[in-house]
Fold these 2 entries.
Entry 1:
Amino acid sequence: MLKDIIKNILVVTITAGMLFSITGCGKKEEEKGASENKDNTNSIVDIENNENTNTVDLKNIYMEVLNETRPYVSEENKEQYLTDYEKSLNMGEFERSYVLLDMDEDSEEEMVILFSGNDGFYLILNYEDGIVYGFADVNRGIEGLKVDGTYYGSGGAATGAILRSTFNKNVRNTIILAEQDWGVYKIDNKDVTQEQFNMFMEENYTSKDDVTWIKFEKNTITETNSMTNQTANDIDGTYVYTRPMDGTENEGTTETIVLNKGNATYKDSYSGSERVGIYMLTDNKLVISYSQETSYNQSTGRDEVANIQWETEYEIEY
């Protein structure tokens, strides 16, 4: 019964929710959505050494780690999941919050995860060459994280430093911008007065905006969605929409959506494009988030793969 309902809803909403990118395009024309062609160091291979490589969707990659569908590599060069890290702390259950920002000023975002419970712990995720690396820190190690990536590390009431981190695979380097240690003050490793230190603190740290932490709900892909108790198997299946015979070039062609255990595939017989991603149920809605697209590029004469960030939403009536 539920499948029939969703099938009907998909038929009604597909044209409104997804076909806007196809209408008016010639057959095999490259679709224009959220995809961009840039450098892609993920597992997608550059087709025939084409110079236009693909953009890596860092947020989606980091969210996969949060959702524990993707592991990360620790500083000990060990592949593990977030639950493995939490278990190693041996401090019970944690709430997870996260923020995306460029910590090392390389124009690529990292994700910082805050584990809060009996005490606070941090894990910094950095993506490099197709691998997500994770760097753990304690509560006092990252205090007052700022939007520009600087933070304060405290060793106690009279010791602390303004810090920035850089990353190279599973190695984290900590840069000390300024520090105080029991009445001794330094900026860039040079002795200064307390007044100079305080002025540096104000200009380069205190006056900057704090990050805004986003509370993570398990099995979500954005900060606004949360999984319901409905299971994925309830809507698993294949849904086909046939375009009407209305005299247009794409009449009679089909769009197909396949849902299978949380994964989603979309195929368009007219344009020849295919998208893959994940789906979830939230607040009586089916949300499909596509992360990869294969489409025909007329300029090169071949199919090309690109990372995309394309989300569609369907109402579900029970």
Entry 2:
Amino acid sequence: MEFHHVSVLLNECIENLNIKPDGVYVDCTMGGAGHSKEIVKRLSDKGLFIGFDQDKNAIATAKERLSEYSDRVRFVHSNFENIKKNEDAAAYKEYFCKADRVVSISDKCVQVLQNNYPDMKNKFMFLPNLTSSIVLSNTAKADIDEVFSKDDFNIVSVGRLTEAKGFDMAIDALKILKDHKVPVHWWIIGDGELRKCLEKQAKDNSVEEYLTFLGFKANPYPYMNKADLIVQTSRWEGKSVVLDEAKILGKPILATDYATVKDQVENGKEGVIVEMDAESIAREIEHLVEDESVLNGIRNYLMARNYGNQSEIVKYYKLFDQ
């Protein structure tokens, strides 16, 4: 399946980075290589690009998209936090020394880098993904063909169908909910290498009637806007754009307790964080269905706040002007 990834502020970032042909560039969350390709194509044969990602599907896609530049690209299938376990962290120090700044969209990732390279910790900085609450809210008003029944508790999940996203746990959780006669319908937006496996798992668990694979949607926001709950069953994440978007739309969140989730979800206020297994996911969903006051409290908390951060673009411009 095709890997789908939208690069944010692509032109602005590339223009202001002022790529040096012989420079060294490290992307600690490479994703679909949108920014990476624009950097790499501007490098000479003396330049070097190093791309990190935990998602093997993302690595495979990046390798394909950057294949013509293989002489100046290195791929690392790992979280940078594991660098000392898998190889010599000093190997990258010389590259970081040459950088003016190293930017991550996750506070947790910045901490990891600072812990690995304490003598240059001031080089590492956090800049958030930019999300416009105005644009997002307007886009979420678009019409869709699918009907979300008011008799069901509608769950929406968005993500690539890969091991990292943990949709196998979602399907097992749905089986538990079905056995408990909880009236839920689960909508999954996204494509990926595991789609056929997940569809077979749903069939084997006899939950096909309660689960809809929507595939890739260029505009997932109308679906998210109709959800009673946004569920993220990830095994690992860097910084989840979906969670930021759910908060802007005022949608309660249920997320598994992966390493960086507490950077984005205030447990009990913006959503609930559960153990990373199907039983815990199902148990909390059932609780939320039965006790609507918890969901209402989360909704009220979210709607009372403005989660859009379009004004943060000023920080990007300040970085580029340094």
